[in-house]
Specification:
Blueprint: H1 15-22, H2 24-36, H3 43-56, E1 60-64, H4 67-77, E2 84-89, H5 95-102, E3 106-110, H6 121-133, E4 137-141, H7 153-163, E5 166-170, E6 178-179, E7 182-183, E8 190-194, E9 208-212, H8 215-224, H9 247-258, H10 260-278, E10 298-301, H11 308-317, H12 347-355, E11 356-359, H13 367-382
Parallel strand pairs: 2-3, 2-4, 4-5, 5-8
Antiparallel strand pairs: 1-9, 6-7, 8-9, 10-11
The protein binds pyridoxal-5'-phosphate.
Length: 383
């Protein structure tokens, strides 16, 4: 019995369907680790780093314990600290600016583009001026490839180079996406990603990675993830922490990487069907010309005047879950209110936080179920 009853709740992300598809191969992969018992720095970790480097084109991949650690490790390696300004979009997951604050530096929040939801280059330029006026040293910029779509990396790279900033790309939601035909991973000094289970390439726990072409940075990151070790384990030459990826998670990721491109293609089909079914009643996401998204989220904007809570409740009553990424931009969060924002404020971030809502998207969303979601959205808006 596999028919879809109209009342069956739709999963927001269907990890169980992926688990069924992977089947015994993933049990076997985990079983091999249980047999060799090299739970830390086992052979699968090295294999995964090589596979991710081949996949992305990056020279070095340093796996680590989470996407947040990945950001923080790069900031530590580059000596970012008190008095330094690091520019972040405010419409993002809190880890982006959080890592900056944890490093002791100052996140300076800049605005985003209303179409791509990614960092607005003009706002970044103004933010750099704001930071200098506040007596901060502009040090780095963290563009986020939000919801799976690459940021405007070329424009941001030019601004950063002119101002002497390094670029740390937060691709936690977009590993596998392409920018002008190239996969993310080589467009910035360092690109970080996350393998949290709900990300498009997720493991069975926490995990992350840093991609870079810089030999020295890669070596420093490898040291930081093991307590700043030097030539041997008990020689500590810098600050560091326990930042490693577990071997079991690497084994899981090696299996998932084999089907990743196929899953990305399936996610794109889902996005195309949403655009076709909803494009005339809500603002559907658009991917900038020449780029591709991996659709970590499918985030629409509701028409002006729509009661978002009532809309979400109407969908929920039909078994369709939604999520709001992000109901508050970072500068509106209690923990981050004290940090500076670009002169002129963040009107686009604040507008998006009011009118966005995300629909279920994953590689196993079949056409009848998606049709049901589309009808529920249309019905809720017509009501
Ligand atoms: C998920 C996410 C992170 C953090 O990744 P974790 O692995 O959960 O630490 C950082 N930045 C963005 C944009 C994210 O979506």
């Amino acid at each position: 019995m596999n028919q879809h009853l109209r009342s069956d709740p739709v999963p927001f992300i269907d990890l169980a369907a992926q688990r069924r598809r992977l089947g015994q191969s993933i049990d076997d992969a985990v079983g091999r680790v249980l047999a060799h018992c090299q739970f830390i720095n086992g052979p699968e970790v090295t294999q995964l780093e090589a596979a991710l480097a081949a996949y992305s084109g990056a020279k070095h991949v340093v796996s680590c314990a989470s996407g947040t650690d990945a950001l923080q490790m790069v900031l530590m390696a580059k000596g970012v600290g008190p008095g330094d300004a690091v520019f972040c979009p405010s419409f993002t997951f809190c880890a982006t600016g959080g890592a900056v604050a944890l490093a002791g530096a100052t996140p300076v929040f800049v605005d985003v583009d209303a179409v791509t939801f990614n960092m607005d280059a003009d706002s970044l330029k103004r933010g750099i001026v704001t930071a200098r006026q506040l007596g901060l040293r502009p040090k780095a910029v963290i563009p986020v490839d939000l919801f799976g779509q690459p940021a405007d990396h070329e424009t941001i790279g030019v601004i950063a180079a002119a101002e002497g900033l390094f670029v740390l790309a937060d691709a936690a939601q977009a590993f596998g996406a392409t920018y002008k035909g190239k996969r993310l991973g080589t467009l910035a000094l360092a690109t970080t990603t996350s393998f949290f289970p709900a990300k498009p390439l997720g493991c069975f726990g926490d995990g992350g990675a840093i991609l870079t072409d810089d030999d020295q940075l890669a070596a420093d990151l490898r040291s930081i993830r093991v307590h700043g070790q030097g030539s041997d384990k008990y020689d500590n030459v810098r600050l560091g922490f326990t930042g490693r990826l577990d071997t079991i998670q690497a084994a899981v990721l090696l299996e998932k990487l084999k089907i990743f491109d196929d899953e990305i293609a399936a996610r794109n089909k889902v996005a195309d069907r949403y655009a076709g079914g909803l494009g005339n009643i809500v603002t559907v996401p658009r991917v900038a010309q020449g780029n591709s998204s991996i659709w970590a989220c499918y985030t629409i904007r509701l028409p002006a005047g729509t009661d978002r809570d009532a809309f979400a409740a109407a969908l929920k009553a039909q078994g369709v879950p939604t999520a709001i990424y992000y109901a508050k931009s970072m500068h509106q969060q209690t923990a981050y209110r004290a940090f500076p924002v670009v002169d002129g404020g963040l009107p686009v971030c604040e507008m998006l936080s009011q009118d966005v809502i995300s629909l279920p998207v994953h590689a196993y969303l079949d056409e009848p179920t998606q049709q049901r979601i589309i009808e529920a959205v249309r019905g809720a808006l017509a009501a």
